[in-house]
Design brief:
The radius of gyration is 20 Å and the shape is globular. Strand 1 and strand 2 form a beta hairpin. It contains eleven helices and nine strands. The longest helix is centred in the N-terminal third of the chain and has 16 residues. Helices cover 40% and strands 13% of the residues. The chain has two domains: 199 residues, 2-enoyl-CoA Hydratase, Chain A, domain 1 (Alpha-Beta Complex), CATH 3.90.226.10; 75 residues, Lyase 2-enoyl-coa Hydratase, Chain  A, domain 2. The chain has a six-stranded mixed β-sheet with strand order 1-2-3-4-6-9, sandwiched between helices. Strands 5-7-8 form a three-stranded mixed β-sheet. It is of the alpha/beta class.
Length: 289
C-alpha cells in the first residue's frame, strides 16, 4: 500500500515507520492518522515484522495537530465524530498502538508536542535525541489532553508529574523526560536510530515472537487489575498454553545445546487459544482478569 504521510520500511524483521511531513515538523493530519492506523494493521498481519520503530523525518518528530486552519481547526469536529462513531483521532491511534501485537519503540528525533507526544504513550519504549523538546500543551490551547493520555501518562510518570506538565502546558527537554521515566534514554541525534535498531534487535533475536505478543498484553492489561490474583490467572493460562508449544521446546533445546534459538511460532497463527482473554465472555466471571 502507498502511504501519503508516512514511510514504511521493513529490514531485518524491523519495521521503521517514519512520519513524513518534514516541511511542517510532521504535524498530525487526517491522512497521517489513516496511514498510521493502516500501518499498524499491516504490521500485525505480517509475520516478517517482529518489532516496530516509529520516528520522524527531518528535524522534528511531530509538532502536534496541524493548526493551519487556525481558529477553525476544531469546527465541525463534534459532528464528524458523531457521523463516524469514532472518538478523537489521537485516542483512536493510541488505542491502536495499545492493541499492537508487536513491540513498539518510539525514537523522538526532535520536537514532540500535543498528539505528537500522547499517541506514543502506548508504545513499549521511548528514546530521544539530545535536546528534543516535548510538551503536553493542551491547556495553552484551551483544550484538554487527548490520546487517552489521562490513562497512560500517570501510569508512566506518576500523577504529580503528569499534572505538573499538563497544568503548566510548558515545553520541556528530553533530559527532563528521562529523569521522570517518560523515556528510556537520550542519545546524540546521529546515534538515535542506531540505538533504536540495536534495542529492536534485542527483541527480535533470541525471543519468541508469540511470547512477546502475549506478555506485552499481560503487562499493559494488568495495570488496571484490582488484585495480583488477576495476574496469577493470566500467568497460569499462559504457562499452561505455551509450555508444550514448539517455541517452548525450541527454547529449552537451544539452552541445553548452548546455541541461539530459532523459534518457529508465528503471531498470525500460533497465539494461544485464550488470547485475547479480555474479550472472551467465558472469562467475565473473573477466572482470568
Amino acid at each position: 500500500m502507498k502511504f501519503e504521510s508516512i514511510l514504511y520500511e521493513v529490514e531485518d524483521s524491523i519495521l521503521t515507520i517514519t512520519l513524513n511531513r518534514p516541511e511542517i515538523l510532521n504535524a498530525f493530519s487526517g491522512s497521517m492518522f489513516n496511514d498510521l492506523m493502516q500501518a499498524f494493521d499491516d504490521a500485525d498481519a505480517d509475520d516478517d515484522v517482529h518489532a516496530i520503530i516509529v520516528t520522524g523525518a527531518g528535524r522534528g518528530f511531530c509538532a502536534g495537530q496541524d493548526l493551519s486552519a487556525g481558529e477553525k481547526t476544531w469546527e465541525g469536529h463534534e459532528e464528524k465524530l458523531e457521523e463516524t462513531e469514532m472518538g478523537d483521532g489521537g485516542g483512536e491511534l493510541s488505542r491502536r498502538l495499545y492493541r499492537s501485537l508487536k513491540p513498539i519503540i518510539v525514537a523522538f528525533n526532535g520536537p514532540a508536542v500535543g498528539v505528537g507526544l500522547t499517541f506514543t504513550l502506548a508504545a513499549g519504549v521511548r528514546i530521544a535525541a539530545e535536546g528534543a523538546k516535548m510538551g503536553f500543551v493542551f491547556a495553552a490551547r484551551g483544550i484538554v489532553p487527548e490520546g487517552c493520555s489521562s490513562w497512560f501518562l500517570p501510569r508512566l510518570v506518576g500523577i504529580s508529574k503528569a499534572l505538573e506538565w499538563c497544568y503548566s502546558a510548558r515545553v520541556f527537554m528530553a533530559e527532563e523526560a528521562l529523569a521522570a521515566g517518560l523515556i528510556r534514554s537520550v542519545h546524540p541525534k546521529d546515534e538515535l536510530l542506531p540505538a533504536a535498531r540495536a534495542l529492536a534487535n534485542e527483541f527480535v533475536q533470541g525471543s519468541s515472537k508469540v511470547s512477546n505478543t502475549v506478555l506485552r498484553h499481560m503487562m499493559w492489561r494488568m495495570l488496571g487489575a484490582p488484585d495480583p490474583i488477576n495476574a496469577h490467572w493470566v500467568d497460569t493460562a499462559g504457562i499452561n498454553a505455551l509450555a508444550t508449544s514448539p517455541d517452548a521446546k525450541e527454547g529449552i533445546n537451544a539452552f541445553l545445546e548452548k546455541r541461539d534459538a530459532n523459534f518457529p511460532g508465528k503471531v498470525s497463527t500460533d497465539l494461544p487459544e485464550f488470547f485475547p482473554w479480555w474479550e472472551e465472555p467465558k472469562f467475565s466471571d473473573g477466572k482470568i482478569g
